Amino acid sequence: MDDMSTQYRSNKTKTELMAGATIKVPEINRVFDPTVVETIADIGYTCVWIDMEHSHADFRDLSALILAARASDIDVFVRVPHGPYNQIIKTLELGASGLIWPHCKSAEEARYLVEMAKFHPQGMRGMGGGRDSGFGKVSRPEYFDLANDNVLLGVMIEDFEGVDACDEIAAVDGIDLLFVGPGDLSQSYGVHRESGHPISQPKVLEAFEKVGKACRTNGKAMGTAVDPGPAMQLAIERGATWLNCCHDVNALTIGYSSAMAETDKTINLSRRS
């Protein structure tokens, strides 16, 4: 059998992120077609975020998207909904490069994610024979170590309780990323009806500063979801290196709107001539 390290797909995004690189992350939130993944890869992105918390995607959809991502050589990170441990291992066995756990409010919850997603001795992930292990053909125990090292685990800080506990959360071994969700966080602080981008609200901005400091102290990365522009600059200045910078529906809206406007312009010019 070939050396296991040549068979297991390495997580290049995690390696770059933990080395200090800034990662540009496009989201797929509603349009679960492999063509979207292929397009994202062709543009030059090196990873993709797939939302299974807010969306209608099921495991059959996820499997097809992961196959497209592997064919295009990009990493896949899945925001999973809160639920039983088997949805964690199913996502990993389908070949996901990492998991994002929403609404993390405590270090205990972060440790629970690690326990579900990592093999012993870091956790107690259930053992199966999925795509990530070559459907059981890869050698053990080397596979357990490779899986533990490669899988990226992120927790979303989108409640004031999570901000209050961010130092303890960032200290949890096995957690790589603290992802600040400005929208839900603004609601948690009661400022979601204020004008302007949520990140510009003083309480939310203060949260970014606190989480950023906790990440720097513990050698973890901080991420967020924010469109390019002044709000993104605020996040970067506070230490964000994982940037969810666009999602599928927004990209379609911008593209179709731009085409309509340009078409109208061309029609009007033609009528004048």
Question: How does this model look, in words?
Answer:
The protein is α/β, with parallel strands linked by helices. It has one domain: Phosphoenolpyruvate-binding domains (TIM Barrel, Alpha-Beta Barrel), CATH 3.20.20. It is built from 13 helices and eight strands. It has helices at residues 4-7, 12-18, 34-43, 59-72, 85-93, 107-117, 142-150, 160-164, 166-170, 182-188, 202-218, 230-237, 248-272, and strands spanning 23-28, 47-51, 75-79, 98-101, 152-157, 177-180, 221-225, 240-247. The radius of gyration is 20 Å and the shape is globular.
Question: What can be said about this structure in brief?
Answer:
The protein is of the alpha/beta class.
Key phrases:
single chain; 273 residues; alpha/beta; TIM Barrel; eight-stranded parallel barrel; 13 helices
Helices and strands in order, then pairings?
Layout: H1 4-7, H2 12-18, E1 23-28, H3 34-43, E2 47-51, H4 59-72, E3 75-79, H5 85-93, E4 98-101, H6 107-117, H7 142-150, E5 152-157, H8 160-164, H9 166-170, E6 177-180, H10 182-188, H11 202-218, E7 221-225, H12 230-237, E8 240-247, H13 248-272
Parallel strand pairs: 1-2, 1-8, 2-3, 3-4, 4-5, 5-6, 6-7, 7-8
